[in-house]
């Protein structure tokens, strides 16, 4: 999960109307990241993982063989880049407990994303048992609905980050803790474990705390991250950047970690990387680029620092990076202070790229053209995701790929 220029620095401001910038606590139009009350969470029960979570006969729950000792970090595992072939995409259904009166609007966005991705690869969407019927009705028969206890829709952060190794697929559980304890997500903290138990694949319990949106890999040995999100006492108290880097390398099979500063405390994620900079391929980084008219605020400064750092960086192969600008939209109408207007928060599916459309016709068209050049041979589909954006997230935040084992 990522956030807006108000909350993670990667979206634009709206011109002529309300600016998409402001303090993280100012409150957007939609409550996508509102904290859940402890009492409400305590009153919620859990249900057994069904469908892929069943035993050999499909009736009983599979034994949990995915405890901390099931798989150790390291070995020959590596995280493939997002453009590598997928087995399927995981998503999650937003609950009314979190989104309240805005649940219908954001569910429309999630269903639209799920249906679109399902045209290119299978989609499995997790939903509370009480919400499963509504999710099936909205998503249609092309999307598998899996009754699993969930709090919210941010599968990129709550689900496992999958890696490949000599024995096939494993899943890294980054010990999701509500973005450094900013929100209480008792159910979402179990999502990675439940998915991996259902798949019956090893669970690699990370020795650090983080989220999938905090990392970006090129599949060839390089990982990109912000210091503000991972080197932070709200997730990894007492750990230095070197400590975090030593953990990241064996977890994801990388030899080079490229850090940008980010910014702490301005948004719930402490500045995730996946709405600022993405690897289109090894050696090519596409960056969400503020408009020339954007204010010289903390987010513009964060962008400039990141671009300067990456322009001087070397990847795992020893080569310099080709930085590609993906200009942010400017004419997006009246949006809340947490609205995420970053085109780089796209999702690369099999034979396709699913990316946002914000209503700035010139910017939308230009962004799609750039992405088509970056991903030749893939169909580029743009979707309106206004409710999701008001919650401070985007398409990439709501998805997590299961790579296909070679």
Automatic annotation (TrEMBL):
Keywords: Hydrolase. GO terms for molecular function: agmatine deiminase activity; protein-arginine deiminase activity. Gene3D superfamilies: L-arginine/glycine Amidinotransferase, Chain A (3.75.10.10). The keyword Hydrolase applies. The keyword Hydrolase applies. Residues 1-23, 59-71 have a biased composition (Low complexity). Residues 1-32, 52-82 are annotated as: Disordered. GO terms for biological process: putrescine biosynthetic process. Coiled coil: none annotated. Pfam families: PAD_porph (PF04371). This is Agmatine deiminase family protein. It comes from Streptomyces alboniger.
